Amino acid sequence: MICLDKDLSRFDRNPNHQRAILIGSATRLKRQRIDLLNDPWPFAPSSIGGIINVHCLLPSLFHAFAISLVPQAYLLLETVSGQGENYLELPHQGELRAALEPTFELAIYEERQTGPDDHRAVAVKVLARRKS
What we know:
Layout: E1 2-5, H1 9-13, H2 15-22, E2 30-33, E3 48-54, H3 62-68, E4 69-78, H4 95-100, E5 104-113, E6 122-130
Protein backbone atom coordinates (compact mmCIF):
# COMPACT_ATOMS: atom_id res chain seq x y z
CA MET A 1 0.00 0.00 0.00
CA ILE A 2 1.39 3.38 -1.01
CA CYS A 3 0.22 6.69 0.38
CA LEU A 4 0.98 9.77 -1.72
CA ASP A 5 0.76 13.22 -0.16
CA LYS A 6 2.64 16.49 -0.26
CA ASP A 7 2.62 16.61 3.57
CA LEU A 8 3.49 13.42 5.44
CA SER A 9 3.70 15.09 8.85
CA ARG A 10 0.48 13.47 10.11
CA PHE A 11 1.99 10.04 9.55
CA ASP A 12 5.17 11.09 11.30
CA ARG A 13 3.29 12.38 14.36
CA ASN A 14 1.58 9.12 15.21
CA PRO A 15 3.05 6.10 13.40
CA ASN A 16 1.60 3.64 15.95
CA HIS A 17 -1.92 4.81 15.12
CA GLN A 18 -1.26 4.28 11.40
CA ARG A 19 0.00 0.75 12.04
CA ALA A 20 -3.07 -0.02 14.16
CA ILE A 21 -5.36 1.02 11.31
CA LEU A 22 -3.59 -1.36 8.92
CA ILE A 23 -3.55 -4.49 11.11
CA GLY A 24 -5.46 -7.19 9.28
CA SER A 25 -5.47 -5.40 5.91
CA ALA A 26 -1.81 -4.66 5.26
CA THR A 27 1.40 -4.86 7.19
CA ARG A 28 3.40 -2.24 5.32
CA LEU A 29 2.56 1.27 4.28
CA LYS A 30 4.97 3.04 2.00
CA ARG A 31 4.73 6.81 2.28
CA GLN A 32 5.82 8.94 -0.63
CA ARG A 33 6.00 12.73 -0.56
CA ILE A 34 4.81 14.13 -3.87
CA ASP A 35 3.25 17.33 -5.16
CA LEU A 36 0.60 15.96 -7.49
CA LEU A 37 0.19 19.32 -9.18
CA ASN A 38 3.84 19.72 -10.15
CA ASP A 39 5.68 16.40 -9.89
CA PRO A 40 5.42 13.69 -12.55
CA TRP A 41 3.09 10.76 -11.89
CA PRO A 42 5.38 8.07 -10.43
CA PHE A 43 3.72 4.85 -11.62
CA ALA A 44 4.25 2.80 -14.76
CA PRO A 45 1.44 1.61 -17.03
CA SER A 46 -0.62 -1.28 -15.67
CA SER A 47 1.30 -1.34 -12.38
CA ILE A 48 -1.41 -0.53 -9.81
CA GLY A 49 -4.15 -2.82 -8.49
CA GLY A 50 -6.39 -0.02 -7.20
CA ILE A 51 -6.47 3.68 -6.36
CA ILE A 52 -8.22 5.42 -3.48
CA ASN A 53 -8.41 9.17 -4.04
CA VAL A 54 -10.07 11.05 -1.16
CA HIS A 55 -10.40 14.81 -0.70
CA CYS A 56 -7.88 15.65 -3.42
CA LEU A 57 -9.70 16.23 -6.67
CA LEU A 58 -7.34 16.59 -9.61
CA PRO A 59 -9.17 15.59 -12.81
CA SER A 60 -5.91 16.17 -14.68
CA LEU A 61 -4.71 12.90 -13.09
CA PHE A 62 -7.60 10.74 -14.35
CA HIS A 63 -5.67 9.79 -17.49
CA ALA A 64 -2.62 8.80 -15.42
CA PHE A 65 -4.89 6.78 -13.10
CA ALA A 66 -6.37 4.89 -16.03
CA ILE A 67 -2.97 4.13 -17.57
CA SER A 68 -1.43 3.01 -14.26
CA LEU A 69 -4.30 0.75 -13.21
CA VAL A 70 -4.33 -2.83 -14.41
CA PRO A 71 -7.38 -3.61 -16.56
CA GLN A 72 -10.53 -4.07 -14.49
CA ALA A 73 -8.92 -2.48 -11.39
CA TYR A 74 -10.93 -0.03 -9.32
CA LEU A 75 -10.75 3.67 -8.60
CA LEU A 76 -12.51 4.88 -5.46
CA LEU A 77 -12.88 8.64 -5.50
CA GLU A 78 -14.52 10.98 -3.00
CA THR A 79 -14.46 14.77 -3.16
CA VAL A 80 -14.60 17.05 -0.14
CA SER A 81 -18.13 17.34 1.26
CA GLY A 82 -18.83 21.00 0.55
CA GLN A 83 -18.71 22.34 4.10
CA GLY A 84 -17.90 26.00 4.53
CA GLU A 85 -16.62 27.44 1.30
CA ASN A 86 -14.91 24.32 0.00
CA TYR A 87 -17.81 24.00 -2.48
CA LEU A 88 -15.67 26.40 -4.54
CA GLU A 89 -13.25 23.55 -5.35
CA LEU A 90 -16.00 21.08 -6.25
CA PRO A 91 -17.05 20.11 -9.77
CA HIS A 92 -20.34 21.03 -11.41
CA GLN A 93 -23.11 18.51 -11.89
CA GLY A 94 -22.10 15.80 -14.40
CA GLU A 95 -18.55 17.09 -14.81
CA LEU A 96 -16.76 14.14 -13.18
CA ARG A 97 -19.04 11.61 -14.86
CA ALA A 98 -18.09 13.03 -18.26
CA ALA A 99 -14.38 13.02 -17.38
CA LEU A 100 -14.37 9.41 -16.14
CA GLU A 101 -16.70 7.63 -18.58
CA PRO A 102 -14.26 7.38 -21.51
CA THR A 103 -11.87 5.10 -19.55
CA PHE A 104 -13.91 3.84 -16.57
CA GLU A 105 -17.12 1.88 -16.03
CA LEU A 106 -19.00 3.62 -13.23
CA ALA A 107 -20.22 1.03 -10.72
CA ILE A 108 -21.38 3.72 -8.28
CA TYR A 109 -21.72 7.41 -9.03
CA GLU A 110 -23.37 9.68 -6.47
CA GLU A 111 -23.63 13.46 -6.63
CA ARG A 112 -24.97 15.67 -3.85
CA GLN A 113 -25.58 19.36 -4.50
CA THR A 114 -23.78 21.68 -2.11
CA GLY A 115 -23.14 25.40 -1.81
CA PRO A 116 -25.33 28.11 -3.35
CA ASP A 117 -27.80 26.94 -6.00
CA ASP A 118 -26.35 29.25 -8.64
CA HIS A 119 -22.90 27.66 -8.28
CA ARG A 120 -24.15 24.13 -9.21
CA ALA A 121 -21.38 22.48 -7.16
CA VAL A 122 -21.68 18.81 -6.24
CA ALA A 123 -19.88 16.57 -3.78
CA VAL A 124 -19.17 13.27 -5.52
CA LYS A 125 -18.55 9.65 -4.52
CA VAL A 126 -17.45 7.26 -7.25
CA LEU A 127 -16.50 3.62 -7.55
CA ALA A 128 -15.24 3.04 -11.06
CA ARG A 129 -13.52 0.15 -12.83
CA ARG A 130 -10.94 0.66 -15.53
CA LYS A 131 -12.17 -0.51 -18.90
CA SER A 132 -10.20 -3.26 -20.59
